[in-house]
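Follow-up to my post from last week.
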Amino acid sequence: MRPKIFTFEPMNNFLNELKWRGMLADSMPGTEEWLSKGPTAGYVGFDPTADSLHVGHLVQIMLLVHLQRAGHTPIALIGGATGMVGDPSGKSQERNLLSANDIAHNTAAIRKQMESFLDFSSAKLLNNLDWFGSMGFIDFIRDVGKHIPVTYMMAKESVKKRLETGMSFTEFTYQLLQGYDYYHLYTQHQCRLQMGGTDQWGNMTTGTELIRRKAQGEAYAFTTPLITKADGSKFGKTESGNIWLSPEKTSVYDFYQFWLRSSDSDAAKYIRIFTLKSKEEIEALEAQHALAPHELKLQRALAEDITVRVHGAAGLKMAEKTSDMLFGKATTEELKALSESEILQIFSGVPMFYVAPAEFQSCTELAELLSVKAAVFASKSEARRMLQAGGVSINQSKVGLNDLPTNNSLIQGKYLLVQKGKKNHHLLIVQNS
RNA sequence: GGGGAGAUACUCAAGCGGUCAACGAGGACAGACUGUAAAUCUGUUGCCAACGGCUUCGCAGGUUCGAAUCCUGCUCUCCCCA
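User reply:
Got it. Predicted complex:
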């Protein structure tokens, strides 16, 4: 007989896990000890500023995932109330306020996205509007404001930085709101841990301070490092903006490509943070990658793992198919052999432009077709420049300034695959839209 | 309230009567090399019916054959003194 199927793993496995994955920046004294004592609850806050999460949020979500796997209770706190106020941390300007309607809509959408990461049979999803919504201003300043000295609040980096350029009372108060969140979770949900990005440190300590003063309790916190790219630019952004989890905002293909295109050093970092692969597994992948870097094993493993999780197996399959078609050795002939439904399916993640047949026929210059008729380029000059530089392909073959596609060039009589530079593809559809 | 400085393209930043669509740097994009990587090198970077034309240098007027450059007013920003 096996003595026990489940031995209570020391909970500091959780922090060790985060350490080797490079997800731990700073932690309050005592955090590790507390976590090793037994299951506890920990939370991360999310602002409902948009109706989708983006890849930047993924770090915090993974924290909750690891927390859950280590046997603790993860709490995702949606800032339905605080989102109406705006956090000054890490921002140089006063934030725009969102309407209550927008926030409700965003909250619902975010809740849904989190469900593919966390098991909500044990995880909790709370909205701080539930406790702030009914709280009056007088109650707040009596119950919360009374406990935290202004000098303490002023000493925070987020406040100091903004004191010169100016900040409203609203934003100044923000740390008290977030601090109260923690206090509330501490008293109502036995939450003893707050996690977040380094820019949240100040707000997090206001929370533990409030808990200490108001409830004579001990609570803990730790932060994750700011995720950066090797070239110093911001993580999660491309020329075209944020990479969102919502397929309406970022196509599944673009999402997949975002991860696939990461540089070697970034991929090694990301795969630790954004996947649950074991250390051994990752190191083996890295070794394989070093042997045959052109196969992009590391990047592929990374992209596959996250894409499946966010967009499902079908989403991944489509993204891979599209990528094969666009970056593989697909020739003009192979493209032409595709059926119409295959084309629409495979290129569903690629931006499409409609051109009326009459417009297509009457067009006398390629640059005009690609700028005026279909906005692949912002202006005709830009299109010409790019054509001259040899940066444009149609149906997988290079074209120049004087080329002009005819009816014969159209795939299935109406499609034209336009490639701008190395990795920007567009589908031109010749039909009345 | 008094005094001073400034506003130029995506950003920083030259230019201070014609030769300015505007030096330079960064960024961005493209080409070569590669692995849809990194680094490096090269090119491009207001618009168009393109050896030419048009619209841009905070806004509105004015002087002049000619203005980003000079004058007047306005708006905004920053600094110093009360």
